[in-house]
Amino acid sequence: MDIEDRVVIITGASSGIGEATARAAVAAGAKVVLAARRADRLCDLAAELGGAGGASGSGGASGSDGVRAIAVACDVTDQAQVSALVHAALEAFGRIDVVVNNAGQGLQAEVEQIGLDDFRAILELNLVAPLAVMQAVLPILRRQGSGAIVNVSSGTTFGDVPGTGGYVASKIALERLSAIARNELKGTGVTVSTLIPFATDTEFLRSIRAGRADAEAMTEGAVFDTPDQVAVAVLDLIRTQAPRLDLVPTAYGGSR
């Protein structure tokens, strides 16, 4: 899929991989719908990328010529807000071509110590929310006869590292959900792909739900990719619409 003039929804767009993907997509000629809970950051980014107003459930840019970005404050674990996000994209740009399900959060705890409330919250954000977004956009993409969904997983799924069980469970489930959805959509012109980044220099470790100190210790000395490097991979996956792409080094079982 040629990304120029395509409309791309990006969740978790206020920082890290989501923010970098938004910048890369606009640089490639796309129009972006920026979704995250931090409205102030979204508004600043949208203005920088060629936006036309503040973050809201309606986007504030209906039919505006030359607008390249809108900001929509959205908690993707709230189904009503997901519906409002999709409505805002259609109101502003008239179509949706690509969705990048990037919003997510980490959890570090050995299986015996995982707080069940923490685990439920991680599943809700990392697995249920991407499903809700897919369900919200798929009828639109089917009617268009084209579209691409990219679900962002994690390189931690390549190993059985102690303390990562809860987080990895959410991401492995997302990978399988994506692969099955891809098969179900054969012949529709709509594809679902999975991106598997490696360690990336973002706010991820600072916003981990539980076990931050343990996670920071585990990654100490690791060589981190930049968000820009991951954004390039996201755009490559949109263009090729391949089933999956990983940025995991071969030493860890990946293809890089």
How many individual domains? 1
Helix content: 40-55%
Strand/helix succession = EHEHEHEHEHEHHE
CATH class: Alpha Beta
Shape: globular
What name does CATH use for the topology?
Rossmann fold
CATH level-four homologous superfamily name: NAD(P)-binding Rossmann-like Domain
Q: Total strand count, please?
A: 7
Gyration radius, in Å: 17 Å
The low-confidence parts are 58-63
CATH architecture: 3-Layer(aba) Sandwich
Class computed from helices, strands and strand pairing: alpha/beta
Beta-strand content estimate: 5-15%
Distance between the termini: 23 Å
| Largest sheet strand order | 3-2-1-4-5-6-7
Short structural summary:
The chain has 7 helices and 7 strands. It is of the alpha/beta class and 256 residues long.
Protein architecture, described:
By secondary structure, this protein is an alpha/beta fold. The chain has helices spanning 16-27, 39-49, 79-93, 116-144, 165-184, 212-218, 227-240; strands at residues 7-11, 31-36, 69-73, 98-101, 147-152, 190-196, 244-246. The protein has a single domain (7-243), classed as 3-Layer(aba) Sandwich (Rossmann fold). The protein has a 7-stranded parallel sheet with strand order 3-2-1-4-5-6-7, with helices on both faces. Helix 1 (16-27) links the parallel strand 1 and strand 2. It is globular. Residues 58-63 have low confidence and may be disordered.
